[in-house]
Write a structure and sequence with these properties.
By secondary structure, the protein is an alpha/beta fold. Helices cover about 35% and strands about 25% of the residues. It contains 18 helices and 25 strands. The strands form 4 sheets. The chain has an 8-stranded antiparallel β-sheet, covered by helices on one side. β18, α11 and β19 form a beta-alpha-beta unit. α3 packs across α4, α7 packs parallel to α13 and α7 packs antiparallel against α14. The radius of gyration is 26 Å and the shape is globular. Bound molecules: 6-O-phosphono-alpha-D-glucopyranose. The site of 6-O-phosphono-alpha-D-glucopyranose has 15 residues, from α9. The site of 6-O-phosphono-alpha-D-glucopyranose (G6P) has 15 residues, from α9.
Length: about 600
């Protein structure tokens, strides 16, 4: 998704802007650009389709140097990914804007501005902002005054940065629906859509709040809130995660993040487990009181986070006896929902900025839910700020577009939720909580054992290199794990992958099975194992090749067309977390064999902040 970087300094800021954009590459984008107020006193820009490295080459060929600039990575929404649609957008030669989000009334504004004599050089919604601002400057010549007035006419979501050749001592920013952070330097200041972009230049940050406008000069930052009142925002020192934008010894961020899972799961558990129970207050001071009233749970999320929610449904119903519904946010937000009394609304999101999930939360507030809980990886996100309760996953920044460590930490958090609700409501069977707490403590070690399957999974990946379609099968709580396995494979290897509950095989997908259609199965040693084995026979009888990730004790062995890969034994309730690991590794190694862009798969974005 789009990224913003801006800088005002005494030194040349071009390389800072490009480095910042590189650090935002993980969000996904299809073009990049920057505008600099040059030492010659002009506003100049360079824009390129494709990677930031292309923009860097363009800047090297035709250098730009200056003390004030803005830069952007664009993920196309309005208008194709072309150079003329890439940001920054100009009005005349003196005003430049970069923008994240969507201006919903752009057509109406475009007509109005055309009527005022403005001509448009792009199909973007963003270009209306810069002309509107130019028009406003005619009556309100101060850039901050003009921006305050202009944004009042914008409907939709924006995080934007503005520079003017006429007022080249300042950078302006406005936030409504798209995050922005100011990076504080010494005699220089910066702006970005994500602090990660600025970790190279500072560790002190100020987060803009909804409706804020900021005027950023080299030695001063002024912020006005939504009511136009000048306000101070807290300065936060950033310590953790400085290393996150670095792949270290790993070939890809995705592999690094897969291998970080024992550590981040450990971190997610830290401070949340008592001797034999989960500490409910980890969910916030009012959690115990709220949880005591919960009779139903409604989970809403997107993508991988949705799959985590689907696993939680099995846990909440089977362990805590609490009815649970799970739905993708884009459906939930537009459906007429009937809310059962005393239902807790739970949103799950790595970023906390996914537009559909946020909109679903905002709708939920009107629908009479008991309260809202966000399970989220970003403490300063909109989802967290707008929810009653929060449990932060401690995955650290996730750079690979395909989510891995965020998923397993979400699962761990959802197990903590299941046990907390069951504990407070007294619905857990005797001994279950103590046993699971003990097993959760051992989980990081178990995940380490699963990661030791790396080499065998890499070898297994060769079976997929020339295939175009695959099926993933699972039963019970392993069905969503199969769904997540299929999602990972399609996201990064571009192989068509579908997941089915194994019992549904003969109701359709069996028709597709032949020797060109590998079938991947997750088979923990549980009460559904025998049923699963029969399903697998159905596949073998049609010549389908089977790849089975099976419990060491499941009694399954290799045979013709059947590849069994032993997975360390684990208690059934935690099996979804463990079995996720070999499936992540499988997708990764298949993608590597296919030579795709593992960390930034085509057409996908890390953080989907538009609908
Ligand atoms: C995008 C990402 C996925 C992610 C989904 C939901 O599609 O590529 O990896 O699962 O958004 O994102 P969230 O931040 O809400 O978990």
């Amino acid at each position: 998704m789009c990224g913003i970087v801006g800088a005002v300094a005494e030194r040349n800021i071009t390389t800072i802007l490009i480095e910042g954009l590189k650090r935002l590459e993980y969000r996904g984008y299809d073009s990049a650009g920057l505008a600099v107020f040059t030492q010659q006193g002009n506003l100049e820009r360079r824009r390129r389709i494709g990677k930031v490295s292309e923009l860097e080459t363009a800047v090297a060929a035709e250098p730009l140097a200056g003390n004030l600039g803005i830069a952007h990575t664009r993920w196309a929404t309005h208008g194709a990914p072309t150079e003329h649609n890439a940001h920054p957008h100009f009005s005349g030669h003196e005003l430049a804007v970069v923008h994240n989000g969507i201006i919903e009334n752009h057509e109406e504004l475009r007509e109005k501005l055309k009527g005022l004599g403005y001509s448009f050089s792009s199909e973007t919604d963003t270009e209306v902002i810069v002309h509107l601002l130019d028009h406003t400057l005619k009556t309100l010549p101060d850039l901050a005054d003009a921006l305050k007035a202009a944004v009042k006419q914008l409907h939709g979501a924006y995080g934007l940065a503005v520079i003017s050749a006429k007022q080249p001592d300042r950078l302006l920013a406005a936030r409504s629906g798209s995050p922005l952070v100011i990076g504080l330097g010494h005699g220089e200041n910066f702006l970005a859509s994500d602090q990660l972009a600025l970790r190279q230049v500072t560790d002190r940050f100020m987060y803009l709040e909804e409706g804020d406008i900021a005027e950023i000069r080299r030695d001063q930052v002024t912020i006005w809130d939504v009511a136009g009142t000048q306000v101070q925002r807290e300065t936060v020192q950033y310590h953790e995660g400085a290393e996150a934008a670095d792949k270290g010894a790993y070939r890809h961020f995705m592999l690094k993040e897969i291998h970080e899972q024992p550590t981040v799961v450990q971190r997610t558990l830290e401070g949340r487990l008592g001797k034999d129970h989960v500490m409910v207050q980890a969910f916030g001071p009012q959690a115990a009181e709220l949880f005591a009233k919960v009779r139903n749970v409604q989970i809403v999320a997107c993508g991988t986070s949705y799959h985590a929610g689907m696993v939680a449904r099995y846990w909440l119903e089977s362990l805590a006896g609490i009815p649970c519904q799970v739905e993708v946010a884009s459906e939930f937000r537009y459906r007429k929902v009937v809310v059962q009394p005393d239902t807790l609304f739970v949103s799950i999101s790595q970023s906390g900025e996914t537009a559909d999930t946020l909109a679903a939360l905002r709708n939920a507030k009107e629908l009479g839910f008991l309260g809202s809980l966000a399970i989220c990886n970003v403490g300063i996100s909109s989802l967290v700020r707008e929810s009653d309760l929060t449990l932060l996953t401690q995955a650290g920044p996730e750079i690979g577009v395909a989510s891995t460590k965020a998923f397993t930490t979400q699962l761990v958090s959802l197990m903590l939720l299941t046990l907390s609700l069951g504990q407070v409501r007294g619905t857990l069977a005797a001994g279950v909580e103590a046993e699971l707490v003990e097993e959760l403590r051992r989980l990081p070690t178990r995940l380490g054992e699963a990661l030791a399957m790396d080499a065998i999974v890499e070898k297994t990946a060769e079976l997929f290199a020339d295939k175009h379609h695959t099926l993933f099968l699972g039963r019970g709580a392993q069905f969503p794990v199969a769904m997540e396995g299929a999602l990972k494979l399609k996201e990064i290897s571009y192989i068509h992958a579908e997941a089915y509950p194994a019992g549904e095989l003969k109701h359709g997908p069996l028709a597709l099975v032949d020797s060109d259609m590998p079938v991947v199965t997750v088979a923990p040693n549980n009460e559904l194992l025998e049923k699963l084995k029969s399903n697998l026979q159905e596949v073998r009888a049609r010549g389908g090749e089977l790849i089975v990730f099976a419990d060491e004790a499941a009694g399954m062995s290799n045979g013709e067309g059947t590849h069994v890969i032993a997975v360390p034994h684990i208690i059934d309730a935690l099996a979804p977390i463990l079995y996720t690991i070999p499936l992540q590794l499988l997708s990764y190694y298949v993608a590597v064999l296919k030579g795709t862009d593992v960390d930034q798969p085509r057409n996908l974005a890390k953080s989907v902040t538009v609908e």
